[in-house]
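Q: What would this complex look like in 3D?
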Amino acid sequence: MNRLLLAALLAFFAVGAYAAKQDLDYERLRASLNALAVDPKLGNLAPAERALAEQAVQALNDSSGGKAEHAHRLYVAERRVDIAYAAAQAVDTEGRLTQLDREHDRILIEASRREIETARMEAEKQRIASMVQAEESDRLRAEGEQSAAAAEAARAQAEQTKRIADAQAKEAELARKEAQLAELAASDLRGRLQNIRATRGAQGMQMTLDDIAFAPGRAALRPEAKSSLGKLVAFVNKDPSKPIRIEGHTDSRGNANANQILSQRRADSVRDALIAAGVASSRMTSVGLGEDNAVADNETEEGRAKNRRVDVILEDAPR
Amino acid sequence: MALTLSACAPTKPPNIGLDDAARMLADARAAGAPTYAPLELRNAEDRLSQARASFDKNHYDDASRYASESRVDSELAMVKSRLGKAREKADNRTRENAQLQQDIANGISPTAAPSGDRQ
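A: Here is my prediction, written as structure tokens for the whole assembly.
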């Protein structure tokens, strides 16, 4: 009799312990999923995988099907939670990789620009030296000096001619490399414009064209930017009743007045491109705000690149 | 007579997703799981062979569970491979960019040699 009671008690506790274990598994996975959902970096990145994990964890509460079925559901739920985490981390890392690729292009282009500048200055210096040399030998010839001096001048001029040729060859080589880099930048630009996204600004939804859509110091849109504006056009056409405000901005380098003019002309370029794409000109206002509305630090190159931009705003309040 | 025959005919085994599990396992291998998620890949393989063994013994409930577990293991192996590859590329790119910046600071022309393994 006692033995029977003991067995019954044991069975009772075993069932209780099993149920408690089930609850613990559920709580643990639920907590893990909740932590993922509120993670500031990963929370929004893989919603589909997170939804599947939610379902799998929820299914742990369904007690039908017995022990084997529960163990199976737990196995699946554990993996689904892992998948949700790994998928979010993958999206996050891929985003970082895109940033790093852009950074890479930016470094190369910047370095090449500086090299070309140096080479141009060198070629110019050589041209001036050559002119001086030529004048000197002309003068010596005119004075009829037969001599070592004349011979020396002629030799120096020949040497100078060679230096010019070298400098020009270097400049041409650098120009060729710049063209390659420009092609790289162009395909990067096309990719960026095709992935451009609308964000909410103070005045309404907006899209931002960043500075690589323009050549440095120039107001015209690059041709490859013009041909990749589909996303932007679709964005402004989504709600044809809303007025469009186009704001040009620059960084703080250089003269403020010139910056204001450049930002106005860039905003105008974007407006003209939108008109060419069939957007009604009556909806659009373009303004140049110069360097006054910085969105990032003007002390760093990265910050300045962010500040050079054109915002296209779909205004909330009708004009 | 006909009645007896039809009663004795073996019932058609249910479709429990064995083929899908095998396909996803192959996908995971192709995605680089042997390198990036060997443990998860191993789990997926084990579950698939257990699913097949149960299926051969006509234990369809067990087979179905194992097949489903194998599929979710393969899925995990795939996403971990994607993550591993992205991390590897990002690490390489970070190093390259730092090297480039340093070269430029040291006056070495970065455009002199073709750089990187852009795809």
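A: To summarize the key features: Chain B has one domain: 16-103. The interface with chain A takes residues 61-62, 65, 68-69, 72-73, 75-76, 79-80, 82-83, 86-87, 89-90, 93-94, 96-97, 100-101, 104, 109-111, 115-116, 118 of chain B (CB under 8 Å).
Q: Very helpful, thank you.
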